[in-house]
Amino acid sequence: MGKHVVEMIMKKHPKKVLVPRSREYDLRNQKDCEKVVQGMDLVIHLAVNGGGIGYNRENPGTLCYDNLVMGAHIIEEARRAGVQKFVGLGTICQYPKYTPVPFKEEDLWNGYPEETNAPYGLAKKMLLVLAQSYRKQYGFDAIHLMPVNLYGPGDNFDPKQSHVIPALIKKFVDAKKRGDEFVIVWGTGKPTREFLYVEDAARAIVLAAEKYNKPAPVNLGASFEMSIKDLVNLIKKLTGFKGEIVWDKTKPDGQPRRKLDTSKAKKEFDFESKVSFEEGLKKTIDWYFHAGDL
């Protein structure tokens, strides 16, 4: 995500751009946050510790702490440094487990998030509260965007941490290379998901940074819903894997359904996704094939 956002910002010829790297700055450290925001007019906070269902189940405390502390420090230091605009990236995991489909921003507080990703989702949710509180008390122009599951070239394909699309692509590509007879997939295949191509998401973030100045959170999505079963079958087809699919129903499904109402993003800063899902998926698979084993 960060790479694509930076590329789009550079096309606008800013005077100065700083891209803090984790090897140089630990955003859980308030002093490091103080350093990176100095002299900046705009801060876009994309840093995150996150992953798929398995990673979330194994690291709930770390995910809650890291995301909460990073976000709180960077917002506070941006305010103190006189930053003119702050863009915070939230997550669809902030929504209640059982949210009417399509998810509307107004439904955000109507229940508890799905249990496996609640610590992560609630940490992000508190950053929304912090942003709104700073706007009210200090007049700090902070906005909060909530994307659906992102995917695209350059994604994290580490099986211990990756989200559903890169995890499945890696499984099917690796199984094809080894000549495996089957691939094991978590859950039942019944849950639904919506996916947003990374370049579309980057464009939405830049548009919001330029045009949106209100306290209410905004969904970022592609306005479609697909079952995990259909996703698995599509990735199987596009990777050319000829074996069988085995569903491990002892593993969790996660949230039952996910699809966003994206009308606010269209109304407020004229964002609509452009890349079709199959086109984006082909680009992601091609990238992984050419990148080799990651």
The spatial strand order of the largest sheet comes to 1-2-3-8
Largest sheet: 4 strands, parallel
- Total E-strand runs: 10
Low-pLDDT sequence parts: none
Give the helix/strand class.
alpha/beta
Name of the CATH first level of the domain at 2-151 and 194-224 and 257-275? Alpha Beta
* Shape assignment: globular
Q: What percentage of residues falls in helices of 4 or more residues?
A: 40-55%
CATH superfamily of the domain at 2-151 and 194-224 and 257-275: NAD(P)-binding Rossmann-like Domain
* Element-level helix/strand string: HHEHHEHEEHEEEHEEHEHH
Number of helices: 10
Instruction: Report how far apart the termini are.
Output: 18 Å
What is Rg?
A: 19 Å
The percentage of residues in β strands lies in 5-15%
The CATH architecture classification of the domain at 2-151 and 194-224 and 257-275 is 3-Layer(aba) Sandwich
The average pLDDT is: 94
What is the CATH topology assignment of the domain at 2-151 and 194-224 and 257-275? Rossmann fold
Give a description of the structure.
- The chain has 294 residues and is α/β, with parallel strands linked by helices.
- It has a domain at 2-151 and 194-224 and 257-275: NAD(P)-binding Rossmann-like Domain (Rossmann fold, 3-Layer(aba) Sandwich), CATH 3.40.50.
- The protein has 10 helices and 10 strands.
- The chain has helices at residues 2-10, 30-37, 53-58, 60-80, 118-138, 164-178, 198-211, 228-239, 263-269, 277-291; strands at residues 42-45, 85-89, 142-147, 149-151, 182-186, 192-193, 195-197, 218-220, 226-227, 244-248.
- A 4-stranded parallel β-sheet has the order 1-2-3-8, sandwiched between helices.
- Helix 8 (228-239) crosses helix 10.
- The longest helix is centred in the N-terminal third of the chain and has 21 residues, at 60-80.
- The radius of gyration is 19 Å and the shape is globular.
- The model has no long low-confidence stretch (mean pLDDT 94).
